[in-house]
Amino acid sequence: MSRSSRLMDRALAVIPGGVNSPVRAFAAVGGEPPFIDFGEGAEIVDVDGHRYIDLVCSWGALMLGHAEPSVLGAAMGAASRGSSFGAPTEAEIELAELLIERVPCFEQVRLCSSGTLATMHAIRLARGATGRDKVLKFSGCYHGAHDSMLVSAGSGVATFATPGSPGIPASVAEHTLVAPFNDLETVAEIVRQHGDQLACIIVEPVAGNMGAIGPVPGFLEGLRALCDSSGALLIFDEVMSGFRVGPQSAQGLYGVMPDLSTFGKIVGGGYPLAAFGGRADIMQNLAPVGAVYQAGTLSGNPVAVAAGIATLKKLDDALYERLEALGKQLDEGLSTAVQYHGISYSRIGGMFTLFFRDELPHRFDEVQECDLDAFGRYFGAALAGGVYLPPSQFEAVFLSAAMTDKQMLEVISGLNAALVSAHAN
Ligand SMILES: *Cc1c(COP(=O)(O)O)cnc(C)c1O
Known about the structure:
With 425 residues, the protein is of the alpha/beta class. Among the domains are: 1-31, no CATH class; 69-314, Aspartate Aminotransferase, domain 2 (3-Layer(aba) Sandwich), CATH 3.40.640. 38% of the residues lie in helices and 17% in strands. The protein has 14 helices and 16 strands. A nine-stranded mixed sheet has the order 4-12-11-10-9-5-8-7-6, with helices on both faces. It has a four-stranded mixed sheet with strand order 1-2-3-15. The longest helix has 25 residues, at 317-341. The radius of gyration is 21 Å and the shape is globular. Bound molecules: pyridoxal-5'-phosphate. Pyridoxal-5'-phosphate binds next to helix 4.
């Protein structure tokens, strides 16, 4: 019995499912997850000594690889001076200034501890600032595990949502409206019907939680126009796309300005940190200036803030050039197999997905048509070959700038071999 298996048995007794976040349990692909011992650069090593090239990168949070020296040094330095005060520190201002410099819509920003909290607070702020209750989200987009966003589309195309989990009251879910991603007509119809009650439209400008799917031309611009005409606020949830698809995130890449935006993952450099911000006149509604309440004991935590600053300082033009060079190498290395096996591939900056469907999906119902059995075989073969992928067709795959050319060649050959295994039956 492997050490990972023994640890899983032990974990199952004390942690539901053995994991602290469900997707880690490999339920979608079968088998048991390796327990991780340590990471270095672009690689992780499990407790049985297997070494993998890591394409999960803590679900996109790591852009510089594991234990990058400047991030590590900054976090250790901060921790040695006291790990938390619950009082303001200068470094929080520095991180806020760095974020405002780089995120086009940020005039003011507030720090919190997770992406879930960032979107929860941004939505409350949008409701408080507009005095409206309804929010519109897109099927296939994920905004964290809080009640108003953990919903499913009801029946029909443009509908009120139903709870996406037991424990969420229908009376909460009914304030959320759901439309298909990349379907502007349905959004226009919803806005026609409910526009005067709509507090905000929240969207991943590059969807990453149904595989990596970019916005079709005109989609984000159309959302902007519908918000302008209805008075709803536009929120870009860039918890995943932020600093991953480019130096100015998706809002800079596509040139569409939201009113508010949420960040997480990369901005904490692998430590618990997230942020929400946007127009100053809206942000001024937050307590203690305004009446919309929002708080957090560990918000702006010194260790996470130091790691975030160190990470952002590394994200310069040269780094994005390097990331794009790795991406191009990957595009070329997979193109023959993509054609040969009749699958599809998309990459936006440092995130990509191989979809087991011949035509590239643009929305969630199309992703659901993918051959999930083939994905499972591909995933298993990649893992056995030393390439650690997210264990679901519905998750994006992440590159880190720590990857060497040689490691990228190993990824390409590993994925090509896994694709052959996936299609062998
Ligand atoms: C990961 C993610 C979240 C949730 O962030 P957590 O830190 O896991 O709470 C929210 N929105 C998007 C787009 C994400 O990818």
